[in-house]
Design goal:
The protein has 17 helices and eleven strands. The chain is of the alpha/beta class and 362 residues long. Among the domains are: 33-163, P-loop containing nucleotide triphosphate hydrolases (Rossmann fold, 3-Layer(aba) Sandwich); 169-231, Helicase, Ruva Protein, domain 3 (Orthogonal Bundle), CATH 1.10.8; 243-277. The strands form three sheets. A five-stranded parallel sheet has the order 2-3-4-1-5, with helices on both faces. A hairpin with a 2-residue loop joins strand 7 and strand 8 (309-313). Helix 11 (191-201) packs across helix 12 (205-215), helix 11 (191-201) runs parallel beside helix 13 (224-231) and helix 14 packs antiparallel against helix 15. It is globular, with a radius of gyration of 30 Å. The termini are far apart.
Length: 362
Amino acid sequence: MSQDPLSLFEPDDAARPLADRLRPTALEDVVGQEHLLGQDGPLGRMVAEQRLVSMILWGPPGCGKTTIARLLAERTNLVFEPLSATFSGVADLRKVFVSAQKRREIGQGTLLFVDEIHRFNRAQQDSFLPYVEDGTIVLVGATTENPSFELNGALHSRCQVFVLKRLDEHALTTLIERAEHTIGRNLPLDADARQALVAMADGDGRYLLNLAEQVQTVCEPLDAAGLAQLVQQRAPLYDKSQEGHYNLVSALHKSMRGSDPDAALYWLARMLDGAKTLSTSPAASSGSRTRTSPSPTPRLCTRRWRHGTCMSASAPRKGSSRSRGPSSIWRPHRSRSACTGDSVRPGSSRSRLVRSCRRPIS
């Protein structure tokens, strides 16, 4: 049987990224999420019963959230409707809801997949509630942020949250073997370089496949140093006030409480490296001050705490006939919270102490 010639309008498979070509076509091919997709896992039991509930897939980038949602719709015979919270709004959601209602009238279900669902505001999240409540759609949201912080309570109570794990070394090694099978030859890496490639991915399967696609064009074998020179260094996952920051802080504290100096130094180095990356990024430098003149040396105020009240020493105004009595020497400060000195609560046993305030004033 002869093979049909390729059409001019069909995309060339070789032009697609390697990560897209290796996207699993069956739930059994998904690696690293056996705790959810196994026979005893919650998603595995739902697929076996052909019954899905609305859910939130929470996990790091490159762990398979989009692929799992697409395969769940395929295995349960639901129409897959993908949306991105970055490019969609309430108008796009209404179109999906109307189409889902029409399909429901003929007995066809709809799985609405919303990528980066945490980017929807509260009003947009509330638009899901009636359609999730009556089963018009099965909502599957994907997020890299903590749903307890980013989703409102009403939507959170109608969805189950499933946590996807970062891919371990065994799962990443499996992806490398699949990449080599698709490429048709082994990657030009020695044993140490293969281990370094897995470490560079840091649990991100998509990033690993992108690295493998970059490495497979090299002719001569590479060691760990040559690999690092070829692919450079990945920016550490760190942010100022989101999950990345608090995860590293928690890991540092637990390492110190567990008396593990090596782990504590590692997590501290991760925080310092990430903070250095943030401080040198264009976004951080754009918010820096443009004034180049040095700031004047701050003066220190002479306020004191007496009887729980911040008192300020001040002389009478120039030209005033008012005598410099006690009432003119000490006067209460307008705002106690504005003073950063040692405060004394009124009525306490220490309230009669007088403490100096060293707050700089302009």
